[in-house]
Amino acid sequence: MSSSPDREIADLMDRSKAGPRNGTHVLRGLRDLPDVLADLTTQARTSPDGPSSDGWMRDDEEFCMDLADLTALAAAQHSG
């Protein structure tokens, strides 16, 4: 069984440590996304300045911590 091109690139990125060097995560597939998001949410909630600190988002971005936040943000963007 051969691996997909995406998986091969993800493996290469993992071996080169490109993700951590650039402050990002390289996923091998969507099945990995929930775990990564859960870890990021925990890190944001426990950071000294919270999710609004400089390391989490830019001034013009929103950061949603849960489905209620996401729903409210989507409704606000849709109406205005």
Verbal overview:
It is a single chain. By secondary structure, the chain is an all-alpha fold. The protein is 54% helix and 0% strand. The chain contains 4 helices and no strands. The protein has helices spanning 5-16, 18-21, 33-46, 67-79. The longest helix is centred in the middle third of the chain and has 14 residues, at 33-46. The mean pLDDT is 75.
In short:
The protein has 4 helices and no strands. With 80 residues, it is mainly alpha-helical. The mean pLDDT is 75.
List keywords for this structure.
mainly alpha, 4 helices, single chain, 0% strand, 80 residues
Question: Topology of this protein?
Answer:
Layout: H1 5-16, H2 18-21, H3 33-46, H4 67-79
What is the helix/strand order?
Answer: HHHH
- Radius of gyration, Cα only, in angstroms? 16 Å
What proportion of the residues form beta strands (DSSP E)? under 5%
Uncertain segments of ≥5 residues (pLDDT<50)?
none
Tell me the distance between the termini: 50 Å
Please give the largest β-sheet: none
Overall shape: extended
Instruction: Assign a percent range to the helix content.
Output: 40-55%
Secondary structure tally: strands: 0
Helix count, DSSP H or I runs of 4 or more residues = 4
Average pLDDT, to the nearest integer? 75
Structural class: mainly alpha
